Amino acid sequence: MTSNMFGGGSNKKATKFSFWWKDIQKIISYSFRDPLVDSCRFSVHNGFATLFWEARWLNVTSLKDLFPDLYGISRLKFVSVAAMGGWKDGVWVWGDLGVSELEMGELGLEADFAVLLGLVEGFKGWKGGKDSIEWDYSEDKDFTVASCYTFYNNLRIHHGPPNRNDEAFGLLWKLDVPFKIKAFGWRLFLDRLPVKDLLKIRGITIPLDDLNCFFCGNWLESSSHLFFSCLVVKNIWSEIANWVGKGDRVESECLSNFMDWHLFFHSKKVKHRKLGVVWLATTWTIWLVRNGACFQKEVWNVNNIVWNAKHLAWRWSFCGKITHPNYSFYEFCKDPLHFLS
Length: 341
Ligand SMILES: [Zn+2]
Known about the structure:
Radius of gyration: 23 Å
Bound molecules: zinc ion
Strand order of the largest sheet: 1-4
Structural class: mainly alpha
Strand content: under 5%
């Protein structure tokens, strides 16, 4: 189950689990970073059941998140802590952690590796017996599928006074878009995407050059900045708004923004299950471009982002029941409201 939780298990194995567990796994498999993983801590005893890179055992953060570049080149992914070294005359000696010196040199990661080695060498918790796992969300710290399911449900249920924007959650799940896009929207609604300000709050010191927004470079990257209030991103929204004939007012709060667009498309008689398609195509494209720029140093420009968002909206307009069976991207671009209605 541990390796399944971290994405290392095969799908075949999943059939042995209950449908609840399959549901949970489905959500996890589409998550860039998951609250479930964040809520499990491993206590290493003999090191055989704890994943070296992927689990949280040494630090509040997994080593994979602390050293993403080293993790990227390590040939020893999804292996246990115990597999990363051996005992020599009663002293634990770490191996190369699957990282080749040559590749490390090419990427200039020697300093990162030295820090990592310093961290793991400081680990003195070896004990006999099996590793244990603690789950923050049940009283006795035991992980059960039931407690996990309750945890996920609680993420969705807002406590406190009802908010008119809460209906956004229900509307999102009804949309005709691929499942992983709904899962993305759900995380965006809950402010659970790994944007830089959240990573900082969690104490994750990932080696990002700075914490500012990749698009404008001027503001701390928060979810509301990155998706709605950044000046560059506002240009993207303005182009999209112009395309569909909406005023270019941009709500900076996520749920209000979603509902604003939702009401606009509703007033234009767009089909119920298509109401959020353009909004999701835009936010998803912004997220993909941001990740490409952040992790692969990909270049971007506003025109391309707008084109990609329109293209996605066109592709998703064919999801689910369709009234217009066949139309080109160029036809769609000329009158998107017609084809979404
Ligand atoms: Zn910005």
